[in-house]
Specification:
Blueprint (H helix, E strand, L loop, with lengths): L4 H9 L9 H10 L4 H14 L2 E3 L5 E3 L4 H8 L15 E6 L8 H14 L3 E4 L2 E5 L6 H10 L7 E6 L3 H8 L4 H22 L4 H20 L12 H27 L13 H7 L3
Antiparallel strand pairs: 1-2, 3-5, 3-6, 4-5
Helix pairs in contact: 1-11, 2-3, 4-11, 8-9, 8-10, 9-10
Length: 284
């Protein structure tokens, strides 16, 4: 999917190891995707007003505090293998919704939807969402992260155990496991096909290719529910994550010359952190 000016800016700024990126680099990168320079500048102004980017004294930009929570979550794709622990079957994390009665209800609902999707929750009953309690981070850390992503303070976040057999079976069946595994294999094939093409592409074409292919797969892994083996076999997901780390090195190489020309220090590819993918699609 072609990026918007908003998502492109966030994606590129997410690559920074330190320092900032000048407007000229953002505008030139936008042109690679058919984005008009004025559209990029307008999106930059709106992101600045919303706190998603900040500007230094030279007029160059970096990510702002408003983008930090999503950026942390999206960057976690590199550590998928270390982000879970063995599941004690029958233990779940749960969120109980509390309806908002204020004018902020739409914003609270958007924040809840984003937070629950990014942590792989599914609805078990009206007002109650669950996911397996197999994440390595402790409850306090998870609570802090899911709140930062937008879960309203009024919603309850807690551990849930000893469901009756019918509810337990229903909870285990909330995810379409066959579709998940098929998607892992399809995305792996996309990476392999792109790797085979890159050697025949020009520099700018390779930049666009790695951005689009990598960004789409990053989004999928970030939204992956990280299910335990008892619910979904993990072999295909692990193979995809390994291939993406390999593809990451190709993306770094494709974008290195462009970033160097603008004297922009970088560590990840423009899709390696990719907060824009998650933010734009999940309506930050």
């Amino acid at each position: 999917m072609t990026p918007t000016a908003r998502s492109l800016i966030l994606d590129l700024l997410s690559t920074l190891r330190r320092g900032t990126m000048p407007v000229g680099a953002l505008v030139e990168a936008g042109a690679l995707f058919g984005l008009a320079g004025n559209n990029v500048r307008v999106a930059l102004t709106r992101l600045l007003e919303a706190g998603y980017v900040v500007r230094d004294q030279r007029g160059a930009y970096r990510l702002g505090a408003g983008a930090e929570a999503v950026d942390r979550r999206v960057r976690s794709w590199r550590d998928l293998d270390r982000s879970t622990r063995p599941w004690q079957g029958g233990s779940w994390l749960a969120v109980q919704y509390v309806a908002a009665t204020t004018k902020s209800r739409p914003a609270q609902e958007r924040g809840r939807e984003r937070a629950l999707r990014m942590f792989g929750f599914r609805d078990l009953a009206a007002g109650l969402s669950v996911r397996p309690d197999n994440l390595r981070e402790d409850a306090a850390g998870l609570r802090q992260e899911i709140r930062a992503l937008g879960l309203p303070e009024s919603d309850l976040f807690f551990a849930l155990r000893a469901l009756d057999p019918e509810r337990e079976a229903g909870a285990r069946g909330l995810w379409d496991v066959a579709s998940l595994c098929a998607s892992y294999r399809a995305r792996l094939a996309e990476i392999e096909a792109s790797e085979a093409r890159l050697g025949e592409l020009g520099a700018e074409e390779a930049m666009v290719e790695t951005f689009l292919v990598g960004g789409a797969i990053i989004r999928e892994l970030v939204l992956d529910p990280l299910l335990p083996e008892a619910i979904c076999p993990n072999e295909d997901r692990r193979a995809l994550a390994m291939a993406l780390r390999r593809y990451d090195r190709l993306g770094r190489s494709a974008w290195a010359g462009f970033l160097k020309r603008f004297d922009v220090p970088h560590l990840r590819t423009p899709w390696g952190g990719h907060p824009g993918v998650a933010q734009t699609r999940l309506a930050v």
